[in-house]
């Protein structure tokens, strides 16, 4: 069909492309020459990373390498949280029946499945591609596709092997994809403007992310510690700003009342990202807020008690604080020893001071 250029990066097939909507151009001008916005693509790459919001955000560095090695390729991404997938991805699909139907009709050059979930692995096994890397489903169980995926596969099965691991998540997925991680940064674009927070501009703002989700309560720092830390921060002139979702609302109201910390409420994702962007430093457990903080390039004090610290890439933005002994809660949703109480307030406060004074 001579009227269209279906191999153009902007071509959609069912709706007008962006250059047409903005400039009124067609695939060919009146002289038969290709549109000046024509960007020829060659090949299709699919990333499967369903995951939680934080998991998707921390997978975005792989896009730097994919764009470098395959500049003409069309990149697709299937996820449960399409709102945080960067705009350099050509086709972003939510994990729905409609999306799966579309994917089954496409032949990809390569599929990278970085998820070990049964759904993601099953889908990877069903789809058509010249090459696949990561994880698939065999006999109803997750299985590594390529040798480079075996390391991440095994560390997910045995706690002692996981504890001995020295590779970060990014080292692992870059290796699965056939690359070497060289400090490529997170890509986080959305939700930073359009909100008026009415916060002071002349004081350092320290975000205190007090929650960790309902499942892994072993990561919760004691409420009284948040109160004490907020008071200390206020005393030296910082502004403690309480962060969290709906689940932390009652707790944050209570902490604010007892400590004098600011609490502006809980917000949808884009607005929450904007709120985090107002801060100079964030104190948080391993949560979505941690990955948003890193993506925004903010300084961070990260609490960790149940994961291998080597998993996290902080890009020199902060410090990881852990209990000073093994509390035997490794990869446990709950912790009988409540080992987070052994990350003491003075230690956190001093770390904040050191980071902000650098």
Short description:
The chain has helices at 18-23, 53-57, 62-69, 97-104, 118-126, 150-155, 159-164, 169-177, 223-235, 249-259, 269-277, 288-295, 345-356, and strands spanning 44-48, 74-79, 91-94, 107-113, 128-138, 141-144, 205-209, 239-243, 262-263, 281-284, 299-303, 318-321. The protein is an alpha/beta fold and 358 residues long.
**What count of domains describes the coordinates?**
3
Can you identify the CATH superfamily of the largest domain?
Glycogen Phosphorylase B
How much helical structure, as a percent, in the residues? 25-40%
Could you say what the CATH topology of the largest domain is called? Rossmann fold
For the record, the CATH class of the largest domain is: Alpha Beta
Biggest sheet record: 6 strands, mixed
Tally of alpha and pi helices: 13
Unreliable sequence segments: none
Instruction: Please tally the β strands and state the result.
Output: 12
Beta-strand fraction estimate: 15-25%
Could you tell me the mean pLDDT? 94
Topology as a string of helices (H) and strands (E): HEHHEEHEHEEHHHEHEHEHEHEEH
- Spatial ordering of strands, largest sheet: 3-2-1-4-5-6
Shape descriptor: globular
| Structural classification | alpha/beta
Rg over alpha carbons: 23 Å
Oligomeric state of the chains in view = single chain
- Write the CATH architecture name of the largest domain: 3-Layer(aba) Sandwich
SSE map:
Blueprint lengths: L17 H6 L20 E5 L4 H5 L4 H8 L4 E6 L11 E4 L2 H8 L2 E7 L4 H9 L1 E11 L2 E4 L5 H6 L3 H6 L4 H9 L27 E5 L13 H13 L3 E5 L5 H11 L2 E2 L5 H9 L3 E4 L3 H8 L3 E5 L14 E4 L23 H12 L2
Parallel strand pairs: 1-2, 1-4, 2-3, 4-5, 7-8, 7-10, 8-9, 10-11, 11-12
Antiparallel strand pairs: 5-6
């Amino acid at each position: 069909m001579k009227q269209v250029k279906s191999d153009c990066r902007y071509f959609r097939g069912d709706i007008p492309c962006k250059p047409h909507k903005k400039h009124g151009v067609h695939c060919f001008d009146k002289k038969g020459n290709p549109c000046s916005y024509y960007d020829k693509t060659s090949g299709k790459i699919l990333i499967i990373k369903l995951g939680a919001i934080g998991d998707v955000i921390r997978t975005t560095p792989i896009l730097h390498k994919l764009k470098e090695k395959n500049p003409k390729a069309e990149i697709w991404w299937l996820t449960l949280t399409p709102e945080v997938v960067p705009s350099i991805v050509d086709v972003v699909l939510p994990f729905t029946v409609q999306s799966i139907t579309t994917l089954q009709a496409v032949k990809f050059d390569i599929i990278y499945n970085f998820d070990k979930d049964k759904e993601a692995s099953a889908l990877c096994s069903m789809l058509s591609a010249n090459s696949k890397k990561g994880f698939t489903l065999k006999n109803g169980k997750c299985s590594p596709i390529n040798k480079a995926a075996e390391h991440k596969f095994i560390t997910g099965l045995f706690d002692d092997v996981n504890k001995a691991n020295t590779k970060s998540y990014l080292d692992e997925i870059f290796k699965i994809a056939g690359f070497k991680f060289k400090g490529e940064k997170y890509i986080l674009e959305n939700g930073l403007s359009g909100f008026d927070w009415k916060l002071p501009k002349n004081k350092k703002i320290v975000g205190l992310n007090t929650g960790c989700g309902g499942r892994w309560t072993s990561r919760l720092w004691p409420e009284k510690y948040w109160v004490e830390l907020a008071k200390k921060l206020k005393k030296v002139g910082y502004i403690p700003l309480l962060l969290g979702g709906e689940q932390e609302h009652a707790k944050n109201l209570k902490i604010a009342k007892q400590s004098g910390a600011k609490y502006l409420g809980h917000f949808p994702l884009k607005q929450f990202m904007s709120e985090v962007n107002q801060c100079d430093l964030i104190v948080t457990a391993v949560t979505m807020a941690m990955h948003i903080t890193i993506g925004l390039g903010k300084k961070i004090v990260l609490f960790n008690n149940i994961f291998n610290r080597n998993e996290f890439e902080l890009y020199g933005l902060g410090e990881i604080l852990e209990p000073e002994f093994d509390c035997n809660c490794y990869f446990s949703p709950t912790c009988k020893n409540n080992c987070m109480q052994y990350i003491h307030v003075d230690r956190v406060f001093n770390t904040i001071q050191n980071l902000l004074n650098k």
